[in-house]
């Protein structure tokens, strides 16, 4: 009987909602809210007010309905049964159980409406902020003061799968709630689950999608990956090393249901460990996805600063960085930062590291966006005294060869890098001045023949730096920089003429002073430079021709006849007056 009366009440509420939802005024909505909060006899107002919560509804009416429903559900939240219990209570004959099941359905509808208002790009900024704050209040008021992770997971799932921009919502999440440790904790937890589910769908249907030409699913996955990355970026990693006390949004914090000792679960050390574990899992799950190229580059550009310091075990990223480093091109250049940190701070071994680094030295490096960081890391990688002479000589020779085609700012960096290499490795200083013997026998030793002047045994196409032949060569390319068209380069190359083996009289050059150079910086420095002597063109008599006879002995330069000038004028009569006047 109770079940039928409840169904009848729900049906009448639906009819009322259909008849008045489009014509209700602000005062009528306000009156419905007061009646709903006053007595249970007006419970059917709840579905009517729920129908008004849409992004297309008028702002005042939607705000009034939202505030009334929030005031209605907040005191009833502890008595609302779980979804599984509510499903079992629908068939019960107890009126209270039936009411609990009905209340659970209306609460789920209200949460779904709040999520829609928060995520939809058509929502007004005012209703979005109020809806999101109301939603986070319900997240905070979970059972027994625990964080309501179930509805928060629904919210993140809707954000990840949103097809429109979610930047306004992420700004609210980052500015208001990302400072709380439990919000960050459950954000990482939900993102780990959502990302793993998305990854299984991508790997399971990737081949079928390619064969069937289904681009829509691929586009949806790309949008989801972008949204996951934006959520991770807007959820800043807390400074786990300095934090001694973490702020919590909920009362209990991040203590789970199975924990009995709340003091142990709320300690800063325990929270620190949990946050690091969840942070690591969320990022690892994300990095396993097929990242679009733009996201891939953004991750590589910031992961060594924003992710690695906060991970529980950064060595887990070795597979990601080694795969990225093996790709080549700009991706390898950007992956060098993270790989260098793992090698120097976390004992990662990479046998072919210098071979890959040697292959990255191409003219395109000096035009890349992240060339500054790459060149600084290149200098740091060649700083070790364990670098062999063959390897140091190969890098010096490769850099000097690049100086022939590099822009002026790149030539300045190359000179600084070679300067540091020659100073750190005195055994390769012979490359600066290589004496060519008069009688140099060939490899077979059959006859003594003079070596051809200008022969270059260096193989620039060799990928193995130890087989490039740099030790049998000289840095002749550096000598050509003395006649460079840019004065800054021709002046700076003179620093290599000093005896760099005397370490007491020389010092290393800071690559940071040159790594961010460009045409603009070179031009600006040259313009600001104060010149003591300015070359002037001085003539004792006014010149009558472009060249003098003394400039070209044996040649004579005579003035053209008047007839020739007239002929030239006639020939160019079809030209413009400006051209005739020049003739």
Q: Return the average pLDDT rounded to an integer.
A: 80
Oligomer: single chain
Total count of helical runs of at least 4 residues: 25
- What structural class results from the helix and strand content? mainly alpha
Keyword list:
two-stranded antiparallel ribbon; disordered N terminus; 583 residues; disordered C terminus; mainly alpha; 2 strands
Can you walk me through this structure?
With 583 residues, this protein is mainly α. 56% of the residues lie in helices and 1% in strands. It is built from 25 helices and two strands. It has helices at 2-20, 26-38, 45-50, 59-73, 83-89, 95-119, 125-140, 149-160, 167-177, 181-212, 215-234, 262-265, 268-287, 293-306, 318-327, 329-345, 353-359, 371-381, 389-402, 408-424, 476-480, 487-492, 519-528, 562-571, 577-582, and strands at 440-441, 448-449. Strand 1 and strand 2 (448-449) form a beta hairpin. Helix 6 (95-119) crosses helix 7 and helix 10 runs antiparallel to helix 11 (215-234). The protein is elongated. 31% of the residues are buried. Residues 1-21, 206-213, 260-265, 441-450 and 564-583 have low confidence and may be disordered.
